[in-house]
Amino acid sequence: MEDTSIASDLGLDLKLLTSFLMSIELHYNPHHYHNKTHAADVLQMMHVIVKRSLLKCGVADAPLAKLAYVVAAMVHDVDHYGLNNDFLVNSRSALALIHNDRSPMESHHCSLTFTT
C-alpha cells in the first residue's frame, strides 16, 4: 500500500513528526477545558472545515497547508495554565512579563511549540 500521509507528501521523517506530536500531547495539562481532548476536538473540526471549503472551491489538498492546520490545531492551547491573559497581565505573572503583556498564553503556546 502506498503511503499518502502528510509526512510522505512533504518528505518529512515520520518518526520525527510522531515524536514532536507526542511531545506536544505530553505538554497538555489536565484542565477541564484546555486539555489534549480539546486539542483533538479542534483538530477534527478544523479538518472538517478545511475539507468542506476545499470541496466547494474545487481545490486539491495542499500538503504544506494541511500540515500547518494540523500543527496549529494541535498546539493552540499547549501547556495552558487555565488562566486568561487579563488575569496573567493584571497579576504581573512571570509569563506576562516574559511576553511583554501581549497575549501571554498565546505567546507561550507558540514559544513552546517552536522549542519542543
Number of domains: 2
Radius of gyration, CA atoms, in whole angstroms: 16 Å
Gross morphology: globular
Order of helices and strands: HHHHHHH
Class per helix and strand makeup: mainly alpha
Total helix count? 7
How far is the N terminus from the C terminus? 32 Å
Layout of helices and strands:
Layout: H1 6-10, H2 14-26, H3 36-57, H4 63-75, H5 85-90, H6 94-98, H7 104-115
Describe the structure.
The chain has 116 residues and is mostly helical. It has helices spanning 6-10, 14-26, 36-57, 63-75, 85-90, 94-98, 104-115. Helix 3 (36-57) runs antiparallel to helix 4 (63-75). The longest helix has 22 residues, at 36-57.
Structure in a nutshell:
The active site is at residue 34. The chain is built from seven helices and no strands. It is mostly helical and 116 residues long.
Question: What are the main properties of this structure?
Answer:
7 helices; 66% helix; PDEase_CS; mainly alpha; 0% strand; 116 residues; PDEase domain-containing protein; 3',5'-cyclic-nucleotide phosphodiesterase activity; 2 domains; metal-binding; PDEase_catalytic_dom
